[in-house]
Specification:
152 residues, Peptide Methionine Sulfoxide Reductase, Chain A, 5 helices
Length: 152
Amino acid sequence: MIATQVGFAGGRTENPSYHDVCAKDTGHAEVVAVQYDTRTLPTEQLLAEFFALHNFEIDRGKGSGQYRSAVFSVQDDRQLQLARRMLATLRAHGFHPATDVGCVPAFYRAEARHQQYCSSRGLTPHRRDDDRIRQLFSRAESTEDSGNQSVS
């Protein structure tokens, strides 16, 4: 992983603040933009960890809540196609994902006080850690192209 930054995406308000998003009328989700090098971290592996480390089956806000599960990109690209295929695989194996996948016009960076929030405060976020998900996706062969990618 090269860099991460937290912010907002998937809604209709331009340049929202954290306060705006918390008011629940912007439609934005709180997201993490991840910059990574696919030569060292294949997109499949990053997405497998994404699905293994959080509960993607809980619909937090009926598709518009700030804490919903989502995979966004500013272009409809291979990442989104791969995320959709991985969701289909999860469904085929009895899971019920509520994850949004889609192209968004922009990523809006959150205020500085929200960046690296947990690590700067010595907090460990609660997370799911499901090896069944990793095993399910470890069977798939990686066909990743090389180069830098970003995923939220």
